[in-house]
Amino acid sequence: MITLTELCKELNNYFDDARYFGNYTVTNGVIDLSEFVADGSLQVGQYFRIAGSIFNDGVYQYTSELNTLTDENIHGVIWTMRVPKEVFGLLADINAWIAKYSASDEHSDSPYQSESFGGYSYSKSTGNSSSDGSAADVGTWQNAFRSRLNKWRKIRP
Fold this sequence. Notes:
Blueprint: H1 4-11, E1 16-27, E2 30-31, H2 34-38, E3 47-51, E4 58-61, E5 72-81, H3 85-101, E6 112-117, E7 120-125, H4 141-144, H5 146-150
Antiparallel strand pairs: 1-2, 1-5, 3-4, 3-5, 6-7
């Protein structure tokens, strides 16, 4: 299963709303974001990203009980995020696809179709060929969801 952090990294898109550079402290698993809540920049249930941390880089959902972080002093940035609902649907679909196709059982469903009879056998993928003419690796969620991912993808610098 992939997380929102992994999906955002793949897309190179953290749906950032505002960035706040500074020094932040995580104590007893809690980072104090009350200044962002007070000024309306961050609301309960909203996602935010920590960058520049040694232990806590990633995407988190703000709740009043957020206490899952590793204690540290952070000299970095907090990004508030505005993640579209459609992205969460995409994440759910990707995780369902991974659950379906990553089973190690040889009789599990597969994104490949194959047939064998009378000394003849073939396997065909359900994806397209890549631009260099080789067969695409449809065994990855990135390729299986390429068209939906591309809608949200940002070009890497």
